[in-house]
Amino acid sequence: MAAADGTLSVQIKVKRYQPEKEAKPYWQEFRVQVDPKDRLLDALNQIKWEQDGTLTFRRSCAHGVCGSDAMRINGRNRLACKLLIEDVGTRITVEPMLGFPVIRDLVVDMDPFFAKYEKIKPYLINDEPEPRTERRQSPEQRERYDETTKCILCGACTGSCPSVWANADWVGPASIVNAHRFIFDSRDRGANERLQILSDRNGVWRCRTIFNCSEACPRGIHVTDAIEEVKRAIMYGSNAIE
Predict the structure, then answer these.
(1) What is the pTM of this model?
(2) Of 56, 76, 108, at which residue does a domain stop?
(3) Contact 31, 91 (CB under 8 A)
(4) Which residue, of 44, 54, 69, 78, has the fewest CB within 10 Å?
């Protein structure tokens, strides 16, 4: 129930892990008074600044662009900076994303995630002579891969994927999305190289089309659809790319 000034008393249950104190994770509850239009990140900041300075989580731009504050909120991967208190309720559970090694509290080790991202060569490959102007493409050619350019590498899709939970070696949805961005770019000449990488046993075929990744993406990318397009490109070659 809202107070006279319109604020809400919210209970936030956080899964903590402080290896120097406890060998195992534990739950800790906090109560904060917040405006319904505040973001969950605001509530977490209030806890850290006013109640417990040891609470650890990542944050940076606070506007849904950097992706640093991805975490599991009420059982779903979300960005804390985009989720309003009024949309999540007055009893909130916060924990680190699944499928990642936990370093401390809500901070997970992203190094393996970025190593898989680097594996798919996430940059333009084109050894042809440079044109006198930019490498041009039509609006239709740009539209072909526009959606997958929106990825902010927050890891929300990867941390929501049961295939990742079961197999730490799988390349994961975020890497495939970023491979898609270049495979279908008309200016790029590295599609075959990336498709070869993604065709191995820990490539696209580990995807079980569960759609958790699409549901978790804070940018609204249809991740599963992008993965299916990469599968078709492996099967049908240039006919599926053009």
Answers:
(1) 0.92
(2) 108
(3) no
(4) 54
